[in-house]
Amino acid sequence: MDATLLHTVSDGVATVVVSHPAKRNAMTAAMWRALPGLLDGLAADPAVRVLVLTGAGPTFCAGADISSLTGDEDPRALAVAAEEALAAFPKPTLAAVRGFCVGGGSQLAAACDLRFAEEGASFGVTPAKLGIVYPASSTRRLASLVGPAWAKYLLFSAELMDAEQALRAGFLNELLPAGRLDERVAEFTAVLAARSQLTQAAAKEFADGRTDRDGYWEAQAAGSDDTAEGVAAFLERRSPRFAWTP
What is the spatial distance between Cα 128 and Cα 151, in angstroms, rounded to a whole number? Predict the structure, then answer.
């Protein structure tokens, strides 16, 4: 099967699948280049309320396919551009991980808001095996996610950690038994898709450290009916119908 990024949209959830089975879903240069544009299109789609990133088959993503690069391409720059596009996606994002999540795969997973994994998954950040300086933005994102001590553990050693370690380190939000990942992701993304996009969008920017749009979000809240709808739905014991959209 060709190396490609697949995507579907169903019930408010966009699913992007890294598909390169011949190389454990390693990202080719073309896949790195394609991801930002794909994300832009999904961000602009009003039908999309949540994004799930996953890998085809039993592996999430084993890193970058170095053999696909041309001589004048910087693999770090390609990966960082894709990572930043994923981190900037304006709606909730969730990485659903099976098997290897290594190198560029860990970069992509770390750029998502949430990470769920199945037992048996492995995680690693491996530039120290190749003498590569890990990008500054990626290092800071990893340290913000798991703390400096775990970030140094991963970056200094290039050792893989298992899913239980990743959960303890704070890299994972949930660890599921084998065979339960898809069901849990579908269940949880349905919850996210039903919640207020206003709350989610503001919370994402605040939690990610953005400080220049506090006034913007105050104005959005003041001009939205989401709060009134949420209170009314609670009092009437029904599901809310939130109307605010990005």
Answer: 13
Find residue 59's DSSP bridge partners: none
Amino acid at 61: C
Residue 74 corresponds to which tokens in the numbers above? 């910087």
Q: Quick check: 73 and 92 in contact, CB under 8 A?
A: no
Angle (CA) 87-197-8 rounded to 5° is 65
Residues 6+ positions from 118 with CB-CB distance below 8 Å: 97, 98, 163, 175, 176, 177, 178, 179, 180, 181
Which two tokens mark 23? 């190389």
Residue 54 token pair = 């996953």
Between CA 124 and CA 4 the distance in angstroms is 23
The count of other CB atoms within 10 Å of the CB of residue 200 is 20
How many residues in total does the chain contain?
246
Only one residue has tokens 């930043």, namely 84
Pairwise CA distance, residues 234 & 203, whole Å: 21
- pLDDT by residue (tens digit) across 182-221? 999 999 999 999 999 999 999 999 999 999 999 999 999 9
CA triplet 128, 174, 193: central angle to 5 degrees? 115
pLDDT at 71: 67
Nearest one of 83, 79, 57, 56 to 66, comparing CA atoms:
79
Candidates 107, 108, 113; CA nearest to 92 is 113
